[in-house]
Amino acid sequence: MRRILLAVVLLGVAFVAGRCVWRATASDATKIRWLLEDEAAAFNSCSALSVLASFAPEWRDETTGTSRQLLHGGILWVFRNRRDAAQRFLFRIELGETDIQVDGDQAKATLAMALYEGLDAYERCVWELRVVAHLARRDGGWLIERSSHETIRGTVPR
After folding, report:
1. Per the CB 3.0–4.6 Å rule, which of 111, 114, 140, 153 could disulfide with 98?
2. What CA–CA distance (Å, rounded) separates 2 from 84?
3. How far is CA 74 from CA 37, 43, 66, 78, 141, in A?
4. For residues 158 and 77, is the Cβ–Cβ distance under 8 A?
5. Residues 62 and 148 sit within 8 Å (Cβ to Cβ)
């Protein structure tokens, strides 16, 4: 029984160590793609503590002039107030095609993004946009320093 337990523990440790090595050796473009996917997942799961974690404190949207603080407040309001009767969150972000260009400690990510509203059969795309994000490597990780966007179709929900 002890041998089986030891084998299971060793397999678990080997899996975690392998995953850490795999993530550490990934390309910068892959790490940036993961960062963008993590931000979308944080929004979709209403993770108030994780949303905007990859945005620099001085981040600003160049299209609207929105600051990180203002965006964070708006997202928190949406998390609390845009729910159905069963308290399910009514929005979802989906990332589309992404082009990432890395130049040393600077990077530019151009991506398609769609915002869906509603649930299940009633879900519909309400806003499609193209986002250009400028990132910088800081303390070994990547942060989004500024961005701009262009509406492709629809409008931002009110």
Report:
1. 111
2. 50
3. 20, 12, 10, 6, 26
4. no
5. yes
Residue range 12-56, pLDDT digits in tens: 655 555 554 445 558 999 999 999 999 999 999 999 989 999 999
d(CA 47, CA 140): 24
Nearest to 135 by CA among 126, 145, 127: 145
95-113 per-position pLDDT tens digit: 999 999 999 999 999 999 9
| Rounded Cα gap, residues 37 and 144, in angstroms | 13
Q: Can you give the pTM of this predicted structure?
A: 0.83
Q: How far is CA 108 from the centre of its chain?
A: 15
Torsion of CA 107, 26, 13, 51, to 10 degrees: 30
- Taking 3-state DSSP, the helix, strand and coil percentages for the chain, each rounded to the nearest 5, stand at 35, 40, 25
The single-letter DSSP state of residue 155 is -
